[in-house]
Design goal:
Oligomer: single chain
Number of helices: 15
Number of strands: 15
CATH architecture of the largest domain: 3-Layer(aba) Sandwich
CATH class of the largest domain: Alpha Beta
Radius of gyration: 28 Å
Shape: globular
Helix content: 40-55%
Number of domains: 3
Strand order of the largest sheet: 13-12-11-14-15
């Protein structure tokens, strides 16, 4: 009996030793983790010598390329090192076309068929795009697949009839024919369009928040926050606060933090700038603010809920203090000028409204909206982010009778 026990014990020991030796052998033969990345590209359809740039993405600022090369025999290569996965754009032909690549320390292959179009300005389009070798890229595609469904939803409710009606309403607003515009907006087809649009943006908000919250404990959370929002508003601060310390300390966690809490410009001077109004007429900011004691420069957008909610407060302040030397200059960062024009017609703001050229907002380091800067007669910023009661109190203090 004891002999049998010893045999079983010996077998167990042998199996244990064999198992450990096998694991040790696996560790010895396993390939070490990559400490750098290589992006090898193969692009057909584009001429040799076409410029290729590697440009950081997933930020709310215009980024400079971190590396440049050219196509040679349809191929290019970029190499480097990363502390954690990063999102980059491969920019071709001096910003004429791009391919997104989630990059990590690995050997990554990118292939695509490019073509150059000269319609409405020269640009490069790609098809049959393939990115392999990056697990982060595969995961990114998987987690953002919902965008395809959203695009289908968007196309579905933008019917030919609703598009034509939108043009008619826009034309009526431009001609200041309020009666006709109101009549068109009361049509059943437009009411249905507005209901469908509201449902669409509700779905966008839910899917956006879902993918961010799902990843609140890793760098993916703030990364998705950066990619799902083109601009931040104060409403996004609670989203950021839910992230773990690990997520907040990650590269994209720090980028999101800087965007949500931009550096103060109080005490700095505002540079002169020119922008256009809704009719395309250029205005010099010096002409607008000439003779004014205090100017509130207000950055907003038609799609920004908090911005639109603040407009009644601005109207109250304007009515109270405009005669005492107070001026408001609203600057829209809307990419869609038609949406901006529509919002102007709805809000009926009585002060100057201009459209951002993407440079002025950057000079003010605008990362989140609404963003307001109170400027004195010398062009110096004396306060920022004044809204509601805080703005009223400040103006009361400055413009005492």
């Amino acid at each position: 009996m004891n002999t049998i026990k010893y045999k079983i014990l010996g077998l167990c020991i042998c199996l244990f030793v064999f198992s450990n030796n096998t694991q040790a052998q696996k560790k010895k033969t396993a390939a070490p983790a990559a400490t750098s990345y290589t992006i090898d590209g193969t692009i057909t359809g584009l001429a040799d010598g076409t410029a290729v740039e590697l440009v950081p993405g997933a930020t709310h600022s215009s980024e400079s390329p971190i590396a440049k090369t050219i196509l040679k025999d349809g191929k290019f290569t970029f190499t480097g090192k990363l502390n954690e996965p990063r999102f980059f754009y491969l920019i071709f032909g001096k910003n004429k076309g791009s391919i997104a690549v989630m990059t990590e320390n690995a050997k990554i292959s990118v292939s695509a068929q490019g073509s150059v179009s000269t319609q409405e300005g020269e640009y490069i389009s790609f098809k049959d795009v393939s990115v392999t070798g990056s697990k982060s890229h595969d995961y990114y595609k998987k987690e953002t697949a919902f965008r395809d469904e959203l695009e289908k939803d968007y196309t579905a409710y933008h019917t030919k009839e609703s598009n034509e009606l939108s043009k008619l309403i826009g034309a009526a607003r431009k001609d200041k024919n309020t009666k006709t515009a109101d009549s068109l907006q009361n049509l059943p087809v437009w009411k249905k369009f507005e209901a469908d649009e509201k449902a669409f943006f509700t779905k966008v908000e839910k899917t956006t928040n879902d993918v961010i919250t799902k990843h609140k404990d890793s760098w993916w959370g703030p990364f998705f926050m950066m990619t799902q929002y083109s601009y931040f508003t104060p409403e996004q601060k609670p989203i950021y606060e839910q992230f773990s310390d690990v997520a907040k300390k990650s590269y994209y966690g720090q980028v999101a933090d800087k965007d949500l809490n931009p550096k103060s410009l109080i005490g700095t001077s505002v540079a002169a700038f020119n922008l256009k109004d809704k009719d395309g007429k250029p205005y010099n900011v010096k002409d607008i603010v000439k003779g004014k004691k205090y100017i509130l420069i207000d950055f907003w957008a038609s799609w920004c809920g908090p911005c639109r909610k603040e407009i009644p407060n601005l109207k109250t302040a304007y009515a109270e203090y405009a005669a005492k030397g107070f001026e408001i200059l609203s600057i829209s960062i809307d990419k869609d000028e038609k949406a901006w024009q529509k919002a102007l017609g709805q809000e009926n703001m009585q002060w100057p409204n201009l459209h951002d050229d993407d440079k002025v907002s950057k000079s003010f380091n605008v990362k989140a909206i609404p963003a307001t800067y109170l400027v004195d007669s010398k062009g110096v910023i004396i306060s920022d982010n004044l809204r509601g009661a805080a703005l009223e109190e400040k103006l009361k203090e400055l413009l005492k009778s």
